[in-house]
Design brief:
Blueprint: E1 10-21, E2 24-35, E3 39-43, H1 50-57, E4 65-70, E5 73-74, H2 79-85, E6 86-89, H3 101-111, H4 116-129, H5 145-157, E7 163-167, H6 175-188, E8 193-198, H7 201-207, E9 210-215, E10 218-223, H8 225-231, E11 236-243, H9 247-256, E12 259-263, E13 266-271, H10 276-283, E14 289-296, H11 300-308
Parallel strand pairs: 3-8, 3-9, 6-7, 7-8
Antiparallel strand pairs: 1-2, 1-4, 4-5, 9-10, 11-13, 11-14, 12-13
Helix pairs in contact: 3-4, 3-5, 4-5
The structure holds adenosine-5'-triphosphate and magnesium ion (MG).
């Protein structure tokens, strides 16, 4: 179907939503419009305000100002309607440790008012999808952290919510489980509106339709991964591997180019316009042997650095 044929409905809309804790503006006037079926990722360092945003959208925390709608329902005026169409897998998983996986799923499903048989059917599908069937009759307190996280996501899916919030779904998972979780999320993609928070750049890069980078309570930039990278591509990065580079030469380069970083085996030069030949002509007469040069595409790391002046993982 072409875009013109699809009537895009808005799933989540926030207008100036903010939350203040004493003097701290944890979320500072955030405006977001998320389409139905979109997988939207909120990316940002610890304390950026991701969880606080999600808690407000799930009616678990009151905004200090501003508001939001979920599928047209106002989170403050109509929280009951909102709660019926959403579900959340929280950052701190809330499982009943003394119950097994089936019982946890049943409890959640029943609390959403679903028929027992429906809950059973969905639980079976979800336990299989999350690879938990083998251990489904064991008490959850014996589960590993990764298994608990997978069960938490199954629980968020049992009510078949229209809008799903996944707060750090891959937190504490080993690389293999993380890849498996990405596959699960990919399976859900398109059929539900998903807001996912993460501080893994590659996760947002590979899964999300659009990404918002959040920092100190604000959305600093928003777009598709490609748009974010293109947005800073007036800055090129050239990696030069060379022998014989001295501190003196690096200092000279810094007089010419705004950003020169010493890396293993050479330097990286970042500037608005880079002329490779100009750089080679500068290095050669100084006795420096250039082994290789490589123009690097901007990464999400670069995007984050560009907009916040900091590395994402500090
Ligand atoms: N209940 C609370 N009382 C006081 N301060 C809070 C409360 N909840 C969150 N904060 C503060 O609000 C800020 C944003 O926290 P939040 O949990 O939203 O960040 P986050 O982006 O989810 O971070 P992380 O990546 O660590 O999960 C932090 O400085 C945090 O300490
Ligand atoms: Mg958080």
């Amino acid at each position: 179907m072409s875009d013109t044929m699809v009537e895009h409905a808005i799933a989540i809309q926030t207008s100036g939503i903010s939350r203040v804790f004493k003097k701290l503006r944890a979320v500072n006037s955030v405006n977001l419009t998320i389409q139905q079926g979109e997988l939207f990722s909120l990316l940002g360092p610890n304390g950026a305000g991701k969880t606080t945003t999600i808690k407000m959208l799930c009616c678990l925390l009151k905004p200090s100002s501003g508001t939001a709608t979920i599928m047209g329902h106002d989170i403050q005026k109509d929280p009951l309607a909102v709660k019926q169409i959403i579900d959340v897998s929280p950052q701190e998983t809330a499982l009943s440790e003394n119950l097994n996986a089936w019982e946890n799923l049943n409890l959640t499903g029943r609390s959403h008012g679903l028929e027992k048989s429906v809950v059973r059917q969905r639980s079976q599908e979800l336990l299989e999808m999350m690879g938990l069937m083998d251990r489904s009759k064991e008490r959850v307190k014996r589960f590993s952290g990764g298994m608990k996280r997978r069960l938490s996501i199954a629980m968020a899916l049992v009510s078949d919510p229209q809008v799903l919030f996944l707060d750090e779904p891959t937190l504490g998972l080993d690389p293999q489980s993380r890849a498996a979780m990405w596959e699960h999320i990919n399976q859900i993609k398109g059929s539900k509106t998903v807001m996912l928070t993460t501080h893994y750049l590659e996760e947002a890069d590979s899964l999300a339709d659009r990404i918002a980078i959040m920092d100190e309570g604000r959305i600093v930039v928003l777009g598709t991964s490609q748009e974010l990278k293109d947005g800073i591509s007036e800055q090129s990065v050239l990696r030069v591997e060379a022998e014989g580079l001295t501190n003196d030469v690096v200092e000279r380069l810094r007089e010419i180019y705004p950003e020169v970083t010493v890396v293993d085996g050479g330097v990286e030069i970042r500037a608005e316009k880079l002329d490779l030949y100009e750089i080679l002509d500068f290095l050669r007469p100084r006795g420096i042997v250039v082994r290789s040069t490589q123009l690097k595409q901007a990464s999400l790391d670069d995007v984050f650095l560009h907009h916040t002046g900091r590395e994402l993982r500090e």
